[in-house]
Design a protein that fits this description.
Domain Ig-like: 16-105, 108-205, 214-298, 312-399, 402-497, 506-586, 591-678
Membrane topology: Single-pass membrane protein
Shape: extended
Number of helices: 13
Oligomer: single chain
Biased composition (Basic and acidic residues): 770-783
Helix content: 10-25%
GO molecular function: ATP binding; cell-cell adhesion mediator activity; metal ion binding; protein kinase activity; transmembrane signaling receptor activity
Binding site for ATP: 819-826, 844, 891-897, 957
CATH superfamily of the largest domain: Transferase(Phosphotransferase) domain 1
Length: 1093
């Protein structure tokens, strides 16, 4: 009895959490984390049931203060940069039911933050540097703060300190026993823990003066110099015979055009450049002794601020804050030496102070209470040091709440009809205010692609248009209007009722029924109400014969007769009306043997034999013979299939013995009979005249004849190969001369007959096409067809396939040149059809249609892009063939090709290959952004691989990038301008040498694995800002290194270790050791996820 009461009591305690008060519980609770200071972390929180739940966070019992570093993502708390002071506390997630206001709190979670401070060297014994004596004891201490256990490393003059009987290292202390003058130098220490290594600090100069050695009087110091300006390193010794400077392992330095060594020991570098960076050692020599002090010279630099410098990230560099609300935007300090100073300027160009309604604290812009017309405008973040300054602006927009004007109205439509739902509001223009449609409380999803529905917002009039209503569209619709800084407002609900139309499901198809068989021919339909279905036969009574029954729309034939042949119509009807569909039913007679071959059949070597076989049926069956169950192996002139179906062998060989099959087939089915043919040796028969007589004479004759035949075939093959090689050599020479002539005339006009882009019946083209197919059949690896084989298959399609993507030249606006490829010019322009919105496109022209190779490659690009549909692959929009030249219209982006973007983002920002003038500066990509672009590119290339296609030219120049940092794989292939330096002519082919593996260059073996190799090169380009791979090597050197398999790719140091490992796998010499694109996408996806945690 007591146990029952205890159980009841326990249930009473559980009721508040799982009962009527919201029934909330945590399915995911925040857990403990251990991260290094400055790293991102994500505290997860999710409550069930998930609907109508809002989340908030507390730290040490207090509501979490707003910060650009910390923001909520659903129920999760994301901290972009952990701070050991501000984030040291107990984090608690609070989940509240919006209707009942019932809330629950999670268990507290702490973040174990690993950190380390700068390390400096302090003199512990003796207390003062002046008290250091020869033979005395010296103790140095590494002063550093941090978390957890630390490991220490000691350096003297930048070289590791070596332990000895005089030198003792105990953790953070360095003991020097019985000091000697040679112990003098610059001492530094390095501390390491789980957070990493301590930042570099200035070294400590240890001076041990001796009577027989030089004594330092002016100690050199580490120096940061501005590029292009003089740099002075001071050093002075007392009692020194000479003072000498060494740079790394070079020296002693003397006065020359770049450096001057003054009499007082000072080293002057007239114009400091990057090549001058490094360690400089000052040596004071006296007699045989030398005292050395080493310092570091560095060139000041400052990386550019970019959109990624803002925290939180600002889409299009726009920060939206509601009126009378607070805005906080941090500007992250860019990388620089020395550490740059960061400050903000207001829209009027004045530096913002650390007090007032608009102020700056810790590089964070704070607008305490946004005022319309006063606090909006462009605010600039500026970073500067001795290398210069960089800035970036953020537009602050102050928003006001929207007002709903009208709600959508309920509609009832027929399946397949178009639907338009409208709501209107008064508010700010997008992107400050945006609208989305909800169906049954969930955002409308683009099921079936963008043609299923379209949303437009024209000055506050928002329309949801369904091109063709489906039964699944039935539901409750409302529009949600959201302005940043204010809660969403919702329209009233409008119900959409879709009435199912009368239709066949599926539509009946023509049938062939075997005579005498039992068969069924179904006809099914559906509609708003259950339809009635019946069959009628054209030219016959309404009543079917007794052996035919119409049961609920299905025709049952109980023994098919010849007179059942004809046209049958299925009629479905209900209150909505009636529909009908007519099919043809044919009656066939399955093959039946009238004469079967005699089994077994005996034959004598050298004599003829007849294998009889005849069959009847309707339609008349065809008869085919095979031997040992292998088709098409009876094509020797000795074998003949007669008109009646019998197989006649004119002269029987002993090798003809075996099992022969006779197969009779028509549309009614197949029948087969087999016969064993036994061959006996003839006493007087010889395959050829043989002078020797013996038991083994016949077999010996056959052996001799086979040997002679093989030798003759070998000679024919050798002669044929010689002729073929001579023909190919002559053709390559002609092609080379033609290309040289084209290059000489590239600035003139070449008039020649243009041909239409279509399949030609010319025998030469067909012959070459067959050769290309034979060549391309070898270009397969890892189970993937090459793009050439796809092209050869696609080239057999009819002309109508190109008509399906036909586009009018009048829809193109002014053409702007981008470059020139193997086919012709490449342009960018705008494309518009029937008043639709203009879209940015790329146009590839086909100038020389007489060039068979160019024509085939143009078709390959068409067929490749025509069958692809992926967000990271450009779409084929159309093909203009109204007049010459032919135009291929492809999707393009607002930022153009990735190569130009990377070049424009460089610090020096040299002129790009396509523009003489200096292009505008593009934002530099962060590591996280490069990972995102790499992930997108890998997904696009995985789609190519899944479609059994090979790209063959993956590089930054053949990728497009948009302003929203999305990437698309493309095929501009501008091999002549502006990227001619990135292509090489090898074996009469123009190839992207520096992006290809050994098997593609030397074996013409292109596959998805060669694309994986090129993809890793693309990632390398993104990290190196569009630099040409192996820029210091000419093409011949690259070819030689590739052939010797000594071409060494090195991932960028800034790439995450996991990505560096993946790139190394992609560059493996053996294609089998490279990962597939499935594996690449998976691994990069993990790296991307990890970088966000």
């Amino acid at each position: 009895m007591w146990r029952l009461d205890a159980t009841t009591l326990l249930l009473c305690f559980l009721v508040p959490v799982f009962g009527q008060d919201g029934s909330l519980y945590f399915s995911v609770s925040p857990g403990e984390h251990s991260v290094a200071e400055g790293s991102p972390v994500r505290l997860r929180c999710e409550a069930q049931p998930s609907s109508l739940v809002k989340y908030s966070w507390k730290i040490d019992g207090q509501p979490l203060a707003p910060s650009p570093r910390r923001h909520q993502d659903g129920g999760d708390l994301r901290i972009t940069r952990v701070n050991r002071i501000l984030d040291s506390g107990n984090f608690v997630c609070v989940a509240t039911h919006e209707e009942t206001e019932y809330s629950i709190e999670s268990s507290p979670a702490k973040i174990d933050i690993q950190w380390i401070s700068e390390a400096s060297v302090q003199l512990q014994q003796p207390k003062l540097p002046s008290a250091i004596r020869v033979g005395g004891e010296i103790e140095l201490r590494c002063h550093v703060d941090g978390s957890g256990d630390m490991k220490y490393e000691w350096y003297r003059n930048r070289e590791p300190v070596v332990r000895s009987d005089r030198i003792e290292i105990k953790k953070k202390k360095l003991h020097v026993h019985r000091a000697v003058p040679e112990d003098s130098g610059m001492y530094s220490c390095l501390a390491k823990n789980e957070a990493g290594a301590s930042p570099k600090m200035e070294s400590f100069p240890l001076i041990v003066s001796g009577n027989d050695t030089a004594t330092i009087k002016v100690v050199p110091r580490d120096l940061i110099a501005k590029r292009g300006e003089p740099a002075m390193l001071h050093c002075a010794f007392e009692d020194a015979d000479s003072v000498q400077w060494f740079f790394k392992d070079i020296g002693p330095l003397e006065t020359d055009d770049e450096r001057t060594v003054l009499e007082n020991g000072t080293l002057v570098i007239r114009s400091a450049e990057h090549r001058d960076q490094g360690f400089y050692s000052c040596h004071g020599d006296r007699g045989d002794s030398s005292i050395t002090y080493t310092v570091d010279l560095q060139i000041a630099y400052l990386m550019n601020l970019s959109a990624a410098s803002f925290e939180p990230l600002l889409p299009n560099q726009v920060a939206v804050v509601g009126e009378d609300q607070e805005l906080q935007v941090s500007c992250l300090e860019p990388s620089g030496l020395p550490s740059p100073k960061v400050y903000w300027k207001d829209p009027k160009g004045h530096i913002i102070s650390d007090s007032g309604p608009v102020r700056v604290q810790d590089n964070t812009l704070i607008v305490a209470k946004a005022r319309m017309g006063e606090d909006d405008g462009n605010y600039s973040c500026v970073a500067e040091n001795m290398a210069g300054e960089t800035d970036i602006f953020a537009q602050v927009v102050i928003s006001t709440p929207p007002t709903l004007i009208s709600s959508p109205e309920s509609l009832s439509v027929m399946e397949g009809d178009s639907v338009t739902l409208t709501c209107s509001y008064f508010g700010m223009e997008p992107p400050v205010t945006h609208v989305r449609w909800l169906k049954d409380g969930e955002p409308v999803k683009e099921s079936g692609g963008p043609t299923r529905h379209r949303v437009t917002d024209h000055h506050g009039n928002v329309t949801l248009h369904l091109k063709s209503a489906d039964l699944s569209d039935k539901g409750s619709y409302m529009c949600e209007i959201f302005t940043k800084g204010f809660p969403s407002i919702f329209s009233e609900r409008a119900s959409l009722t879709v009435e199912e139309k009368l239709k066949f499901s599926p539509q009946p198809v023509d049938k062939r029924l075997e005579l005498g068989s039992t068969a069924k021919v179904p006809c099914k339909s559906q509609g708003a109400t259950n339809p009635t279905v019946k069959w009628i036969k054209e030219g016959a009574d309404e009543e079917f014969p007794k052996h035919v029954q119409d049961i609920n729309g299905t025709l049952h034939f109980n023994g098919v007769l010849e007179e059942d042949k004809g046209r049958y119509t299925c009629i479905a009807s209900n209150a909505q009306g009636s529909i009908n569909h007519t099919i043809s039913i044919d009656v066939v007679i399955a093959p039946k043997f009238t004469i079967q071959p005699q089994n077994p059949t005996e034959a004598i070597e050298g004599y003829p034999v007849m294998l009889h076989c005849a069959a009847e049926g309707d339609p008349k069956p065809t008869i085919q013979w095979d031997r040992d169950s292998r088709m098409n192996n009876l094509n020797n002139s000795r074998f003949e299939v007669l008109g009646n179906g019998s197989l006649y062998i004119k002269e029987v060989y002993m090798s003809d013995e075996g099992k022969y099959g006779c197969t009779a087939g028509n549309s009614g089915g197949l029948k087969r009979e087999e016969v064993q043919l036994n061959v006996k040796a003839g006493d007087t028969y010889r395959f050829d005249v043989d002078l020797e007589v013996g038991d083994d004479g016949s077999m010996m004759t056959k052996t001799v004849m086979i040997t002679l035949s093989a030798a003759a075939a070998y000679m024919v093959l050798v002669v044929g190969l010689m002729l073929y090689c001579r023909y190919r050599r002559r053709r390559r020479k002609q092609q080379y001369l033609q290309e040289q002539a084209e290059e000489k005339l590239e600035n003139g006009e070449v008039q020649e007959e243009q041909t239409e882009l279509k399949e030609t019946s010319n025998s030469k083209v067909n012959s070459t096409g067959r050769k290309k197919e034979n060549r391309d059949s070898h270009n397969k690896s890892d189970g993937a067809d090459t793009a050439q084989s796809q092209s050869s298959n696609q080239s057999k399609k009819s002309k109508s396939n190109y008509d399906k993507i036909a586009a009018s030249r009048t829809n193109l606006k002014e053409l702007k040149p981008l470059g020139r490829g193997e086919f012709g010019e490449v342009y960018s322009t705008k494309y518009q059809v029937d008043g639709d919105k203009e879209t940015l496109v790329m146009v590839k022209s086909l100038i020389n249609t007489k060039d068979e190779t160019a024509l085939q490659e143009f078709k390959r690009h068409l067929d490749l892009l025509h069958k692809l549909n992926h967000e990271n692959v450009v779409k084929l929009i159309g093909l203009c063939r109204e007049e010459e030249p032919d135009y291929m219209i492809l999707e393009y982006t607002d930022w153009g090709d990735l190569k130009q973007f990377l070049i424009a983002s460089r610090k020096d920002n040299n002129s790009s290959p396509t523009h003489e003038s200096k292009p505008p500066r593009a934002p530099q990509l962060s590591v996280a952004q490069i990972l995102s672009l790499s992930n997108q590119a890998a997904k696009g290339l995985k789609h190519l691989a899944d479609s059994r296609l090979v790209h063959k030219d993956i590089a930054a120049r053949n990728c497009l990038i948009a302003s929203n940092l999305t990437i698309k794989i493309s095929l501009p292939c501008m091999t002549k301008e502006p990227y001619q330096q990135e292509y090489t002519k090898h074996r009469n082919q123009v190839i992207p040498l520096r992006w290809l593996p050994y098997e593609a260059v030397y074996e013409d073996e292109y596959s998805t694995k060669s694309d994986v190799y090129s993809f890793s090169c693309l990632v390398w380009e993104m990290f190196h800002q569009g630099e040409l791979p192996f820029i210091k090597m000419n093409d011949e050197s690259v070819l030689a290194a590739l052939k010797a398999q000594t071409l060494a790719w090195k991932p960028h140091k800034a790439a995450p270790p996991a990505l560096q490992e993946l790139q190394a796998q992609c560059w493996a010499n053996d294609p089998r050791e490279r990962p597939t694109f499935d594996e690449v996408v998976s691994k990069i996806g993990e790296i991307v996820v990890d970088s966000c945690l």
